[in-house]
Amino acid sequence: MSASEKAIESAILRLLEQRDSCASICPSEVARALDRRRGDKWRELMEPVRRAADRLADAGLVAITQSGVPVDVGHAQGPIRIRRPVATQQRRGA
User: Fold this and answer.
1) What count of other Cβ atoms lies within 10 Å of the Cβ of residue 87?
2) Tens digit of pLDDT for each residue in 8-35?
């Protein structure tokens, strides 16, 4: 895993720690937090953020949802949210 991949994963976890335990974050929040100086260039980070969220979900550190329902980011189409995992959740589409 590259240093930039670790930085993205750390940013996801850091943003989640700053929120209420049941709150979620948008991948765009992570991308913007990682690169505040590039204007609209944060969009280039969206796919790496989604991949990092997927790795963290596989490790059980986060849950990925659409409309509040857990999903596998590899099968998710459209916007996703990232939140802390709930012990009883299972990922859909895995």
Assistant:
1) 5
2) 999 999 999 999 989 999 999 999 998 8
